[in-house]
Amino acid sequence: MADTPEAAAAEPAAAPKVSNRVLAQYVRDMSFENILAQKGISGDAQPEIKVQVNLDARKRGAEGQFEVITKLKVDSTAKGTGDPMFVLELEYAGVFEVKGVPEEQLHPYLLVECPRITFPFLRRIVSDVTRDGGFPPLNLETIDFVALYRSELARRLEAEKAKSTEN
């Protein structure tokens, strides 16, 4: 405890305690299309996998509650021919109660930390669905949500620059 006002001013302010509680997780939407079975591809086709990830966060009605959605699209094509093998689209959501995060840091927190928590569950669903769909289980690599967030910020900045130069 500081004895003088000068000493009190020199003490760093206590950082607020951050808490993040998962209230629910669920599949919002999912589609798996086995094109290989529908059209048929001759021989042993080697798959080429393309994964797209998008994130979205929404405030909910209750104080400090947010819904964070990881949107995943997986396209698998045959190497060489480019024939489609399967398409998986998945929206996986988590409902979080977040406290103690400063307002200016809330957006990156929601789009980086919350998807990190739900990612292992999303990965398991992708693995199970691809396996149950007749393919080897697809085990997604760990997603760098910080890099994903930064690239989205850079993309938005470029879009704003392009828009301002058009006007």
Layout of secondary structure:
Elements: H1 5-10, E1 19-34, H2 35-39, E2 47-59, E3 65-78, E4 84-99, H3 103-132, H4 145-166
Antiparallel strand pairs: 1-4, 2-3, 3-4
Helix pairs in contact: 3-4
Q: From the alpha-carbon coordinates, what is the Rg to the nearest angstrom? A: 22 Å
The helix/strand order is HEHEEEHH
Q: Please identify the oligomeric state.
A: single chain
CATH architecture: Roll
Q: Classify the fold: give the CATH topology.
A: Bacterial Protein-export protein SecB
The CATH superfamily turns out to be SecB-like
Average pLDDT for all residues: 88
Structural class: alpha+beta
Distance between the termini: 57 Å
As for the number of domains, it is 1
Number of strands: 4
Fraction in helix: 25-40%
Q: Could you give the order of strands across the largest sheet?
A: 1-4-3-2
Q: What is the name of the CATH class? A: Alpha Beta
Which segments are poorly predicted (pLDDT under 50) over 5 or more consecutive residues?
none
What percentage of amino acids are in beta strands? 35-45%
Largest sheet: 4 strands, antiparallel
Number of helices: 4
Can you tell me the overall shape?
Answer: globular
Write up what this structure looks like.
- The protein has helices spanning 5-10, 35-39, 103-132, 145-166; strands spanning 19-34, 47-59, 65-78, 84-99.
- The chain is an alpha+beta fold and 167 residues long.
- The chain has a single domain (17-166), classed as Bacterial Protein-export protein SecB, CATH 3.10.420.10.
- A 4-stranded antiparallel beta sheet has the order 1-4-3-2.
- Helix 3 packs across helix 4.
- The chain is globular.
- The mean pLDDT is 88.
